[in-house]
Amino acid sequence: MKRILITGALGQIGTELALYLADIYGKENILATNRSEKNLEDIGDIRFEKLDVTDAQRLHDLAKDFKADTIVNLAAILSARGETMPQQTWKVNVDGIVNTLEVARELGTKVFVPSSIAAFGEGTPLDNTPQDTIQRPSTIYGVTKVAGELLCDYYFHKYGVDVRGVRYPGIISHQTLPGAGTTDYAVHIYYDAVKKGAYTSYIAEGTHMDMLYMPDALKAVVDLMEADPAKLKHRNAFNITAMSLTPEILEASIKKHMPDFKLDYDVDPVRQAIAESWPNSLDDSCAREEWGWKPEYDLDKMTADMLENLEKKLK
Ligand code: NAD
After folding, report:
1. Burial letters 204-239, b for 16+ CB under 10 A, else e
2. Residues with beta carbon inside 6 Å of ligand 1?
3. Which residue is closest in CA terms to ligand 1's atom 32?
4. CA quadruple 121, 124, 130, 135: dihedral positive or negative?
5. Atom nearest to 183 CA in ligand 1
6. Taking CA atoms, which of 80, 94, 135, 183 is between 20 and 30 Å from 273?
7. Residue pLDDT, tens place only, 228-245
8. Is the pLDDT of residue 315 over 90?
9. How many CB atoms lie within 10 A of CB 160?
10. How far apart are CA 242 and CA 246, in angstroms?
11. What Cα–Cα distance (Å) separates residue 90 from each residue in 119, 126, 309?
């Protein structure tokens, strides 16, 4: 990677990825794009252009003018919001990937596309979920993620496009708030711990989902994109994870710093049903073997860092 265009760059992952890539590859080599300008202040003085990822011609023109050698496609509508607008979710999530892959084919760029634990569902083994297994998701978001995984493989095999990706679990971070997914509670719990000393969880006690701290999510992009292609047996949709969490596991970790922290529950049936259809814990051994995936943050290290940063940000 040398010159990188990011779509959806003003979201939870994109703002931090833009800054992270700018540190490594140089600010002048990053072009951040997004449909709206919300959170624009989060990317400092990195170059920004408005881009709706469904506009294939503008994506092509921006990538060509910028002489991008890599496109990171983060533009998406996430799981909980997706259920309120299925057709728009298909359009953004799937057309966005097709447009990105077409531009990559025409201009010869590399591509990074994240999938999600949402690509699993009915019939998937939920514990130690294998890399290659049944994928019958019940949400439109999950359907778009499976379609995206298949499209990425198709463009690699048919056209030789160097497209790579991971299946992210829930990402926990303190800079930009998440965009209406199902794992957002694991971010909100830290914000409310610092703001109010208490949190009401919309996910029920005992519901396991995989999570990852943002620094590891960012490092995964660079490690995978810079990996020796000869070692990649899979190219797309690598399972990656750092921890399998429930609300009460997070509570116990927060209590080590804030003994009076209180957690209660007001379960949202829509997001709870989505959570129950997703894996409890992923098997990420293919990512470990093929490109050296190894997260640096476990739960307690993440909790200490989240609380320290949010105390600075919110107080
Ligand atoms: P987000 O919702 O925070 O950000 C998405 C960004 O895309 C937003 O800035 C939004 O304005 C933008 N966007 C929406 N429609 C657009 C369009 N038509 N054209 C251009 N931009 C558009 O999401 P995120 O958490 O940063 O996720 C980025 C990617 O990672 C997505 O593919 C998502 O599915 C995947 N992912 C995220 C998580 C997570 O926990 N955050 C987990 C698994 C996978």
Report:
1. beebbbbbbbbbbbbebbbbbbebeeeebebbbbbb
2. 7-8, 10-14, 34-36, 51-54, 74-78, 92, 114, 116, 168, 170-171, 178-179, 181, 183
3. 74
4. negative
5. 40
6. 94
7. 999 999 999 999 999 999
8. no
9. 10
10. 13
11. 14, 25, 35
- The residue extents of the domains of the chain are 4-169+217-239, 170-211+242-281+296-314
Residue closest by Cα to atom 4 of ligand 1: 11
Distance from the alpha carbon of residue 126 to the mean position of ligand 1, in angstroms: 25
- Report d(CA 183, CA 186) in Å as an integer: 6
Is the whole model's pTM more than 0.90, yes or no? Answer: yes
Locate 59 and state its tokens.
């994506």
- Ligand 1 centre to CA of 74 (Å) is 5
Residue listed under structure tokens 């694991």:
186
Distance 76 CA to ligand 1 centre (A): 4
Distance of CA 27 to the CA centre of its chain: 22
Query: Quick one: CATH architecture of 170-211+242-281+296-314?
Result: Alpha-Beta Complex (3.90)
Pocket test of ligand 1: the residue of 74, 87, 98, 163 to mutate, having most ligand atoms within 8 Å of its CB, is 74
Active-site residue set: 141
* 227: pLDDT strictly greater than 90: yes
Over residues 248-254, mean pLDDT: 98
Contact 46/33 with Cβ under 8 angstroms? Answer: no
Dump pLDDT digits (tens) for 147-166: 999 999 999 999 999 999 99
Closest-CA residue, ligand 1 atom 13, reads 75
User: Hey, whose CA ends up nearest to atom 2 of ligand 1?
Assistant: 179
Q: Ligand 1: distance of its center to the CA of 246 in Å? A: 23
